Amino acid sequence: MVTLVEEPVDVSAVFRGGKLRPTAFLWRGRQYRVRRVLGTYRSMKGRYLELYYSVMSDTPEVYELRFSTDGMSWSLVRVHGEE
Amino acid sequence: MTQYVRRGLLRAAGRGDKGGEGRCVLHLDMDAYFASVEQRDVPLYRGRPLVVCHTSSDFCSHGVVATASYEARRWGIKAGMSVWEAKSRCPRAFFVHADIPKYLDNARRIRRICERRSPFVEVFSIDEVFVDLAPALRGVPPGGERWREALRVGRELKEEIRGRLGLTASVGIGPNKLVAKMASEFQKPDGLTLVTPDQLPEVLAPLPVDRLVGVGGRMRGHLRAMGIETVGDLARAPREVLEWKFGVVGRLLWEAAHGRDASPVVPCAEAEEMKSFGHSLSLRGGTRDLGYLENTLLGLCDAVTRRMRRDGYLGRTVSLRLRVGYAMSYARARTLEEYTDLTSPVYEAARELLRREAASGLWTEPVTTVGVSVSQLRPRREGRQVTIWDYLDSREERLTAALDALRDRYGEQVITRASLLGDFALSGMNLAR
Lengths: 83, 433
Prior knowledge:
- The complex is a heterodimer of chains A (83) and B (433).
- By secondary structure, chain A is an all-beta fold.
- Chain A has strands spanning 2-8, 10-16, 19-27, 30-33, 36-45, 48-56, 62-68, 73-80.
- In chain A, the strands form two sheets. Chain A has a five-stranded antiparallel beta sheet, with no helix packed on it.
- Chain A is globular.
- Chain B folds into three domains: 3-30 and 107-257, Alpha-Beta Plaits, CATH 3.30.70.270; 33-102, MutS, DNA mismatch repair protein, domain I (3-Layer(aba) Sandwich), CATH 3.40.1170.60; 276-428, DNA polymerase, Y-family, little finger domain (Dna Ligase, domain 1).
- Chain B has 433 residues and is an alpha+beta fold.
- Chain B has helices at residues 3-15, 33-41, 70-73, 83-89, 100-115, 144-165, 177-186, 200-204, 217-225, 231-236, 239-246, 248-257, 290-311, 343-359, 388-392, 395-410; strands at residues 25-30, 50-54, 64-68, 94-97, 121-125, 128-132, 169-174, 192-194, 276-287, 313-324, 328-340, 367-375, 378-379.
- Chain B contains 16 helices and 13 strands.
- In chain B, the strands form three sheets. Chain B has a five-stranded mixed beta sheet with strand order 5-6-1-7-8.
């Protein structure tokens, strides 16, 4: 089941080899360490670049994070889970 | 007959392309593309029925199936089916929204991988490309060695896509686009099939005639009525009879049954100019509500004219396409006095056509699909005839320019008509792309 979230989140990320990778995020008071980045893609929203990351933490869910160059902001877009 | 065969023959004639002889074309078809991308990104979906939907509902409660994973296909779920029917067939499947920007980004990466083998890469759809392998096979002597090398290139291409993107593709290789496309369907998923010119008669002859690209249900019915069931039957049929019955399409069908296709692989940069811009929308369960249909039409006209302005075209002929129930579909058209790329004139013409049809009494069932397109195009750079009305009232033009500037800067969803908010189902479409 997919839960639409669309909430701003605090994210720690690293720039390495010309790429941006999230390493941890804070959502609703809980910290999630990014264990795996499963997929990424980029998209333009108007003139602003958006980068999307499907990531896994220690829980079975998959979290979709978005970094937008409009305001240099991170959001949690949706969560894919069993129920 | 498919547009691609018809267009290809015309292009080939224009280029003096002999076609077929010595050519080697690869067709790459991503397996259950949208669903495979989602299964790659979300391990939970792997090995389980997954249905990717075009829908405006947060909970995927309506709309249509865009792609079903192979696991979902075992339940009879396929693209184009209503989400409601898919849910009734497999309630335990996962239903997710189609994420078109994600699939487009992956498609761009796939195209780039193909372009490393040959500059002649034609994007046929979001999940299909043709590659002319001539540059990759330069210096390889013709005959068996050339085909073996083509197979090696195909295998390497599949491995690179799997390695870099985690996706599988089915590849077909043949002496032309038609055969390559059919070959890619022989082994799915993750197949690699070569059909050489020598193998053509024995490979094509036993196939049901609807396996030919471009033969749909209606054409199959016509051919069946003539006693033609297989591609071999079609190849043996007198060409003159097919031409008499189906015109130019009959000749193209006969050529296709012999595995002949001279259409060249056309890279994006050489693609021909646009012929029309159009959008359509399937309406869940259908409707007879004229107000709702007009509102839908307004959204579609907005989307069509936005794309025309972005690509720099003006158009004159407005066509309305309607599907009534699930059997009857037809189109009506009107040509405007002036070329335009603004919503109002296009919408007013389409609305007039719609109202006339609504009053005609033809709608014995609800309307299930509505679409609008604008044709008879010309590039905006050639100029537009300025009328006295432009001087008297240029407000729409100025408003449209302001809205376009906003959307160019902040994205398509930044502003919309109030009448299109709420239950209007256009949000599932990527309108301006």
